[in-house]
Each structure stands twice: as C-alpha cells, then as structure tokens.
Design a protein that fits this description.
Length: 250
C-alpha cells in the first residue's frame, strides 16, 4: 500500500510494538520531513532503539506501519545508513578503504567511488590520514571516519543511535558540529537518538519527546535557533530546560 504524504521522508502510522505482554510502543503517529534533522529523546527503556529496529525491519510491528517515501519501509529498497555507539571502523582497512567499503558492497562504479572518497576525505579533513589504519589514529579521527562511512553512500536517511554516548564533552561537541556540517552539505534526513538533552537541543530542528512505556509521543519541540548554536544563549538554555522538564514529569 502506498502512502500519500509527498513531503514525508518517514511516516509512522498507528505503530505499536509489544514483546509478549510488555507493551513498548503504543499507537505512535508522526512524520519526518525530507532533509529534516530530528532528535528522539525519552526515558530509559521507552523504546527508542526498538523504533529504529522497526524502521530497518530488524523486527516487525505488532500493528501499524512505517513508510519511507510513501512505501512500506524496506532497507533493501531504501537508501539507509547507520551510525551506532560501538566503534565501527574496520581495523584492518586503512581510512580510504574504510570509506570505500560500503560503496564497493553496493557495486558503485570505480570512478564514482574515487570521487566520493576524495570528497569525504576533504570534507572531514582526513586527507593526510588516507593510508593510516584506525589503530594509528586518535579516537576523534576514527570517529570522523565512522561519520564519513555513514554519509558516503549519500543515504536518504541516516539513523544514529547514541553515536557519541561514551565520549567526553570536547569530542562530542566537535563531532556534533561535523554531523551538522555534512547534513547541511548533503541534505540527508537524519534521525538521531540520544539521552543527552543538551545534545538534542544543539542538533535538532525538531525534538520528539517520548513518554514512559507504553510509549507515545509526549511532545514535539521545534527549535528554530541557527547553527552553530550557543549553549549559553538564554533561548538555548530555556529550550533545554523545557525538554528536561518534559522528560522528568510523566
Ligand atoms: N527483543 C526483545 N525482547 C523482549 N523485550 C525487548 C526486546 N527488545 C527490547 N525489549 C524491551 O523493550 C523496551 C524498550 O527497549 P529499547 O532498547 O528500545 O529502549 P531504549 O529507549 O532504546 O532504551 P535506552 O534508553 O536504554 O537505550 C525495554 O523494556 C526492553 O527491555
């Protein structure tokens, strides 16, 4: 069945998911616009990762449906890409080959691969590391490779699940800025999951706040502040505090 919201990249309709008697997601309805940067926040265990697993068809909904470009979500058909918490640079490949990896699997022509790898090395400032292996590089440079791998297929939809969960604040700020820069340059739709409300306020055009289980959308917060955002700007602080309150009081 085709779904007819032309502007929506992702459309979630009456989506519910139970694991046995545990009701996790209950009747979720929302959509994500093409090119939008959406951050999903919510209490621990409310089903954020479950939502991504449904979108990538790792698991099936109990009821309802998820659409990508108006078609039932299908990772074989839609151009999806992921960046998760675990470091995922391939240790035995150098930077160039790490970046090429996904493109080779998708059998892109050689000259296209070369063009994209050069573009990404430049975009990430990794040109001088092209022949280096992950073990020879700093953690932040390896993370840049991982971001590069996620974006290099020019995915229509990039899913990021707590990608910077374990990192110190300085590196987090740096990589958040990188993701924003590439998102703007390539026009990818990004769904970013985090526990960190400051990170959500820094990144998102729109924050979806999930409730406790059985989970529904408690509220959506649009953030119109220009990037790069200033963490000390009173407006920024106000939004961050507001989102924190929404998560606290369920
Ligand atoms: N395959 C499964 N079988 C049974 N229960 C599951 C399964 N996967 C997830 N759950 C349960 O569903 C709920 C939601 O899990 P999920 O990992 O999606 O939450 P989350 O919001 O991503 O959590 P966190 O904030 O800790 O990352 C949890 O209570 C979890 O124990």
């Amino acid at each position: 069945m085709k779904h007819n919201n032309e502007l929506a990249k992702v459309q979630v309709c009456d989506l519910s998911k139970n694991f046995g008697s545990l009701k996790v997601l209950e009747n979720l309805n929302f959509s994500i616009k093409r090119g939008e940067f959406v951050v999903v926040v919510g209490p621990t265990g409310c089903g954020k990762t479950t939502f991504l697993n449904l979108l990538t068809r790792l698991i099936q909904p109990s009821s309802g449906e998820l659409y990508i470009d108006g078609e039932p979500a299908d990772p074989k058909q839609h151009s999806l890409s992921f960046a998760f918490q675990e470091p995922s640079a391939i240790p035995w490949l150098n930077v160039e080959d790490n970046l090429k990896f996904g493109l080779k699997i998708k059998r892109y022509p050689k000259d296209e691969i070369k063009k994209r790898v050069e573009q990404m090395l430049k975009l990430l400032g990794l040109e001088k590391f092209r022949r280096s292996y992950p073990s020879q590089m700093s953690v932040s440079s390896v993370q840049r490779v991982i971001i590069g791998r996620a974006f290099i297929t020019y995915p229509d939809l990039l899913l990021m699940d707590e990608p910077y969960g374990q990192m110190d604040i300085k590196m987090r700020f740096y990589l958040e800025a990188e993701v924003l820069r590439i998102w703007k340059e390539l026009g990818t739709t990004v769904v970013f999951i985090t526990h960190n409300i400051e990170e959500a306020t820094y990144l998102a055009e729109r924050v979806l706040i999930l409730s406790n289980k059985p989970t529904s959308i408690k509220e959506e917060v649009k953030i119109d502040l220009p990037h790069p955002r200033d963490f000390t700007d009173p407006e920024f602080v106000k939004i961050r505090e507001y989102i924190t309150e929404q998560i606290k009081w369920w």
